[in-house]
Write a structure and sequence with these properties.
Length: about 550
């Protein structure tokens, strides 16, 4: 097990992942250490002090989620794994990972890996065997079926990335199932040997000292035993599970048997202790997502809540999203909040209207870091990175190649460390994806010594959060407030913090049910901290504050 400096939790203390700020690193794009234009593990190790050196001069994040680092032919950039217990040479070696974990742990930073259990690469040894013959002992590790009577696919299931979810294999005359690319065949979790094999993979990495996993499309793992076709939505009826391909996804995801597998994984995590798992439950309905927590103790410790990815810049809408989560989450389970990730346009690109500059990004960050839940940041959001512009000839993402409008390269451009050669990301002539043209203005070097920068604001907010139990442990209660504002109270023991966010580009005056309060943090570094009367309190345009009340 890697060297660790992490304190062991006292019995009554909450688990670390309830209070942590997570930071997603898209490994290819964070820092290249060997000059091949692709980010790698040693590059991340070089940047750990930036992420958290134990002082407020660093960002202060508590845990890193690394996107997949396993060997992969990279049809979907690592989400097509060809060997689960090794590191792809483009990212380094197992030794590099051990060093990264040891160095991270010395700084009290945890590291979770991306686990991709729904599908493997078509080049994984398991699939090569499976496709070799209908009688191969691994045939049933994947989902194979005869063609329908008309010679077409066995049912109407669709790939999330477009087209049918089935590909015909000439060698054996059957179709195999793939919820994503044809190069990503789905494993068959109705076969206990597959369940066992994946549990061994989980144990392999936990033994090696990783602090847990982000689990890719966990809701997809188990499919209907009879492989029934998905129904079409009935006209005039609301179907919360129609979310791609115009089908009701009744049979190709979110099957009850998945919970048994997750319960078993939770037991493994608990046996190792101090480990976590955050599931990508890619469903829209929060009630169904919440079910992946089981009773709050026996399934996923954390599940992604992606509601903010589809919320427009509107205070009432954000409040509604949060209140909904507060209503439906099991009391023992911890919500999560996310503004950006490697699959959707960055929130600065989604929310910004040119006239506000980065003001929205500050208000959004303050919200993310003060709600009741575990926040997940996406690399570069702390400096205000926006989506890059990718010329057609440089598109890498398989989704972007099929559907240019929804390609995911723009949110995956290299981290902007400085205004120099390839933004300090690589010594190569160019990076694997083109750099954003804004890197000369938006970068770490420019922002780190500027107390008015977005980066300085993120640091202040994250370090403030760490010291404030009302924020990391407190209850949440929204207050009715002036239009365009979102106001809530967080309480723990005798501590109470009021968070007030103004989504409008004009000032907004609040009437608050408190005599006075002390402003402790504002998105505007020039706002005077200290006591203010609260019967009438005015927020500046696009300002957010935290007050002790
Ligand atoms: C998840 C990942 C995405 C990937 C897909 C297939 O949604 O976040 O990047 O393409 O699963 O593995």
């Amino acid at each position: 097990m890697a060297e660790t400096n992490l304190s062991t939790r006292a019995a009554a203390e909450p688990e670390w992942w309830r209070e942590a700020v997570f930071y997603e690193i898209y490994v290819r794009s964070f820092q290249d250490s060997n000059g091949d234009g692709v980010g790698d593990l040693a590059g991340i190790t070089q940047r750990l002090d930036y992420l958290n050196d134990g002082t407020p001069n660093s960002l202060g994040v508590d845990a890193l989620w690394l996107t997949p680092i396993n060997p992969s032919p990279m049809f979907d950039f690592g989400y097509d794994v060809s060997d689960y217990c090794a590191v792809d040479p483009v990212f380094g070696t197992l030794g590099d990972l051990d060093r990264l974990i040891a160095e991270a742990h010395r700084r009290n930073i945890r590291v979770i890996l991306d686990l991709v259990p729904n599908h493997t690469s078509h080049l994984h040894a398991w699939f090569r065997e499976s496709r070799s013959s209908p009688t191969n002992r691994k045939r049933d590790w994947y989902v194979w079926r005869d063609p329908a009577p008309d010679g077409g696919p066995p049912n109407n299931w669709l790939s999330v990335f477009g087209g049918p979810a089935w590909t015909f294999d000439e060698t054996t005359g059957q179709f195999y199932l793939h919820s994503f690319l044809a190069e990503q065949p789905d494993l068959n979790y109705r076969n206990p040997a597959v369940v066992d094999a994946v549990e061994h993979i989980i144990e392999f990495w936990l033994d090696r000292g990783v602090d847990g996993f982000r689990v890719d499309v966990i809701h997809k793992m188990v499919k209907d035993a009879l492989l029934r076709s998905n129904p079409k939505p009935e006209p005039d009826k609301e179907h919360p599970i129609v979310h791609y391909g115009g089908q009701v996804h009744a049979y190709d995801e979110d099957q009850p048997e998945v919970h048994e597998i997750i319960r078993s994984w939770r037991q493994i995590l608990d046996r190792f202790g101090e480990r976590t798992m955050v599931g990508e439950v890619g469903l829209y309905d929060p009630v169904r997502i919440a079910a992946y927590h089981g009773n709050g103790h026996d399934e996923l410790p954390l599940a992604f809540n992606f509601r903010f990815l589809w919320t427009s810049w509107d205070a009432a809408e954000f409040r509604e999203r949060v209140d909904e989560i507060e209503r439906v989450w099991p009391p023992a389970a911890q919500p999560t909040y996310v503004l950006s990730n490697h699959d959707v346009p960055r929130h600065r690109s989604r929310f910004d209207a040119a006239q506000y500059g980065e003001a929205h990004a500050r208000v959004a960050a303050l919200m993310l870091l003060t709600l009741r839940g575990t926040p997940f940041l996406y690399y570069g959001e702390e400096i205000g990175m926006r989506d890059g512009v990718i010329p057609v000839e440089r598109v890498c993402d398989p989704v972007g190649k099929r559907f240019p409008a929804v390609g995911r390269d723009p949110e995956r451009t290299p981290m902007q460390w400085n205004g120099g050669h390839v933004a300090g990301f690589t010594t190569a002539a160019d990076a694997w994806l083109p750099l954003s043209s804004e890197h000369e203005r938006i970068n770490v070097a420019t922002e780190q010594n500027d107390s008015h920068s977005l980066l300085s604001f993120y640091r202040r907010a994250i370090w403030y959060r760490k010291r404030c139990r009302a924020l990391t442990r407190g209850t949440y209660r929204a207050l009715d407030s002036t239009p365009d504002t979102f106001v809530y109270v967080r309480e723990y023991d005798n501590a109470c913090r009021l968070v007030a966010l103004n989504f409008a580009a004009e000032p907004r005056t609040l009437v608050l049910p408190f005599e006075s309060g002390r402003v402790e943090l504002s998105t505007d570094p020039d706002r005077a901290t200290g006591a203010s009367p609260l019967r009438s309190f005015t927020l500046a345009p696009s300002e957010g504050v935290v007050m002790a009340v």
